[in-house]
Design a protein that fits this description.
mainly alpha; about 0% strand; 4 helices; single chain
């Protein structure tokens, strides 16, 4: 085998290896995003919001402890409305991030499968061609 065909073969195997690694990483990202999507209030990376938004009482304690000295205390209805708004915003933020992650990782999975299959077929054909040329 000449140097050029060895380099082509190395290139093909490296592309296949990178495609497999990309595939595995993206599948992990899709699974993690699916878990986040199933329970947005307890999603990864939002620990402070989880603690505050875990209940109305926790949120109330957070609001009351963050009030400056002498500030009037909001009514319960106001705190409840603020809690619901913060909770809904958290859910929407996590849903958007999860859907983005699923979409991007899904596209990378498709691209990695296409690259792997195309290069694997190309390698098999070039090896078969090389074997038949050596036999002749």
């Amino acid at each position: 085998m000449d140097k050029r065909s060895r380099l082509a073969q190395l290139y093909g195997y490296l592309v296949c290896l990178v495609a497999v690694i990309t595939f595995l990483i993206c599948i992990g990202n899709i699974v993690a995003a699916a878990f986040d999507l199933s329970d947005p209030l307890h999603a990864r990376g939002h620990f402070e919001e989880q603690r505050i938004l875990s209940s109305l009482e926790n949120y109330r304690m957070h609001v009351l402890s963050s009030l400056p000295e002498g500030q009037p205390v909001p009514e319960d209805e106001s705190i409840r409305a603020m809690y619901e708004a913060a909770r809904d915003a958290q859910i929407q933020t996590v849903r958007l991030g999860s859907m983005r992650s699923i979409t991007v990782s899904g596209l990378l999975v498709v691209v990695s499968v296409v690259l792997f299959v195309a290069h694997w077929i190309w390698l098999r054909r070039s090896e078969a061609r090389g074997t038949s040329e050596e036999a002749a």
